[in-house]
Design a protein that fits this description.
It is a single chain. With about 120 residues, this protein is an all-alpha fold. The protein has a domain of about 50 residues. It is built from three helices and no strands.
Length: about 120
Amino acid sequence: MRANKSLLVRLRVPLLVSTTILCAFILLGSDQGFGEDQKEIIDRGVEIKIEEYIKRQDKRCWDRALEEAVSLVDSMVRAGAMGSRIDPVVKPPRPYKPGKPEIKQLPDSLDHSKVLKD
């Protein structure tokens, strides 16, 4: 009798565990409400992705605007610093170049026809 009792105890624990697991699968595996939960999870995931995308684009826009502002301010500071170094006396314009003189050709005293025939 003792051997049978021990066998029942050994079989009862795995049977209880397997029955519990089976009931959990049946209850959780039913389609009632599960599709809506999954849809809500997917919708929330999409919302998170959209929010992250908007934040990334906003940061890129701010970074570009900041870079342009910094370069503009730098050029203004340079122009202000160079303004005090520029000579206030206006230089006269450069003089015009004179026209090129006409070069007169001297008549050629060598008769080329004799040289070219030989």
